[in-house]
Write a structure and sequence with these properties.
With 89 residues, this protein is α+β, with helices and mostly antiparallel strands. The chain is built from two helices and four strands.
Length: 89
């Protein structure tokens, strides 16, 4: 089996949320589930609200729902959206 490259947009509950804490939690989730972190970018959305774009490698044979569910349950995360998914290996 191969590896997928995933980009997931993570929206916080409000502009006041500490994105650093969320980012660290996301990285821990990816690593604990067998993925490999690549890059995390803060992207302005509107009115002071920023999103985190999480880019990581994920084993193709492993269910993506595992990481999606955990991302959605991170404290102060309002929503997530897969914005890119492609086979990289």
């Amino acid at each position: 089996m191969g590896t997928m490259g995933l980009k997931i947009k993570v929206m916080p509950n409000s502009p006041e949320v500490d994105l650093t804490k969320i980012e660290e939690t996301l990285k821990e989730i990816v690593e604990s589930k067998g993925g490999r972190n690549r890059e995390y970018i803060i992207e302005p959305v509107a009115f002071g609200l920023n999103a985190i774009i999480a880019f990581f490698e994920w084993p193709e044979e492993q269910a993506l729902e595992e990481v999606e569910d955990e991302f959605e349950n991170v404290e102060n995360v309002n929503s997530i959206q897969i914005i890119d998914m492609r086979k990289i290996d």
